[in-house]
Amino acid sequence: MVSDLRSAVRASVLLACVIICSNVLCPVGAYLYNNRYAGDQVFRITPSDAEEVQTLKKILGHMKVDLWQPNSATLIKQNATVDVHVKHNNTRGLHARLKHEHIDYRVFISNLQSEIEKQTGYRSSRRRRSESQYDYEVYHSLEEIQRWMFDMNRTHSDLVDMFSIGKSYEGRSLYVLQLGKRSRHQKKAVWIDCGVHAREWIGPAFCQWFVKEAINSYQYDSVMRRLLNQLSFYIMPVFNVDGYHFSWTTDRFWRKTRSRNHKFHCRGVDANRNWKVKWCEEGASSHPCDDTYCGPFPESEPEVKAVAKFLRKHKKHVKAYISIHAYAQMLLYPYSYKYATIPNFSCVESAAHNAVTALYSAYGVRYRYGPASTTLYVSSGSSIDWAYRNGIPYTFAFELRDTGYFGFLLPESLINPTCTETMRAVKAIASGLLKKCETDRDRFPYI
C-alpha cells in the first residue's frame, strides 16, 4: 500500500514536471544555453576617423568576436557605431585596448546571459494548446510555429492555404501560408518572408502577427478586407528553419543556414548573400567561417533555391517582395549592391515614405528609409536585388526595432508594439499596389 502510494506520488510529480516544461522554455541545466554567455558583453564602439577605423579593425581581427552591427569588419566606417559581442575572456583586454587607443566606446550589455534570460522569459507561461490560446506576445520555437501554421490552415480554410515549397539542408519542410479570399482569376500577390537570419527572432514573431491580424480583422477592417479580397499574400514565417532551430537549442546568436562545408569545419551560409545577383561581390565574404559567407555558388542553399524557384514561377503575379529583418529601424529598397537609382524610384520611394509614415503613426517610432546601399551598407547577392531583377517592382527589407539598446534581444514586452506599427507599414505598401503609379516601363526591370 505504502509503495503504491509512493509510486503514485512519484508519477504525479513527474507529470507535473512534464506539464511545466511543456509550457515553459526549460533551460538546459541551470541556465539557458548551458550558461555559455555568462560574463559576455556587447560593446558599442564609435571610431572617429580613418586611423581609428583601421586600428579597430586590427584589434577586432586579433580576437574572436561576433559583430552585430555592421555584420562584417570590412563595413566599419568612421563616426558609425559598431556593436560587437565579446566573449567574457576577451572583455578586459578589449576595454584596455580601446582606452589605450582613445577610441570612444561604451558597454550596452554588461552580462549577455542575464539579458538572454530576460528576453526569452523562460519562466513565462507559453500557451500553445490551440489557436484561440496561442500567445502572439512571446517568442515561439520552430516546432510551435509549424504547429500553429497547421492550426491556422485547419481552422481558417476560407482564407488560409498552407503548402511546402521544399526541404531545408537538414530536411525540414519549408512551409508557406497563402492568405486571401479565393478567386477564380489570378490576383496580384505579395510575398513576405521572416527569419532569414536565425538570431532575428522578432521576424518570425511579426509574420505570425500579420497572419493573426489579417484573419481576425477581415470582418470589421475595410482596408484589410479589401486587401485580402483583391490580393494574395504568401507568408513564410521561418525562412531559415535550420538556423532558427539552432538559435533556440544551441547558439542564440547564430545567423547563417546550417549547411556543411567540406573544406572547413565552419557551417552555414548567409541566406541574404546567396542570391544570383552580383553574387559574392562587395559586402559578401568568400570565406566559409564569416557571417556574410556567400556560399560555394548562387542558390547553393536549398532554402534560397526553393524560394527563388517559387518566385520565378509566380513572378507575373507577385508585385511586392518584403523581407523582415532586425535590427536598425530602417526600410530599405534596391539597390543593395551599388550606388545607383532604380528605374521606378519615384514609385518605390513614395511607397516607402507612406509605409514609414504609417508606422510612425502608431507610437512615434522613426524609421530611416532609402536605397540599402546608401542607407545601410553595400551588399551583393541580396534577396531584394534579386527579386527586383526578376521583375518584382516593389522589393523591401525591413530592419525592425530597435537601434541597439536591446539589439537582437528585443524583449517579449516589445513584440506587440513592434508588430503593431510594422503591420501599418506593410498594409500601406500592399494598399499602394491597388493604385497605379507611373514608371519608366522601358527601363524596368533591368539592373
Pick out its properties.
disordered N terminus, 447 residues, 13 helices, four-stranded antiparallel β-sheet, alpha/beta
Can you offer a commentary on this structure?
The chain has 13 helices and 12 strands. Helices cover 36% and strands 17% of the residues. The longest helix is centred in the N-terminal third of the chain and has 22 residues, at 2-23. Strands 5-6-8-7-9-12-10-11 form an 8-stranded mixed sheet, sandwiched between helices. Strand 5 (160-167) and strand 6 form a beta hairpin. The protein is of the alpha/beta class. It is globular and about 70 Å long. Mean pLDDT is 91; it is low at 1-24 and 127-131. It starts with a helix and ends in a 15-residue tail after the last helix. It has helices at 2-23, 50-61, 88-100, 112-120, 142-155, 202-216, 222-230, 241-249, 302-313, 345-363, 372-375, 383-389, 415-432, and strands spanning 41-46, 65-69, 82-86, 104-109, 160-167, 173-179, 188-194, 231-236, 318-326, 330-333, 368-371, 394-400.
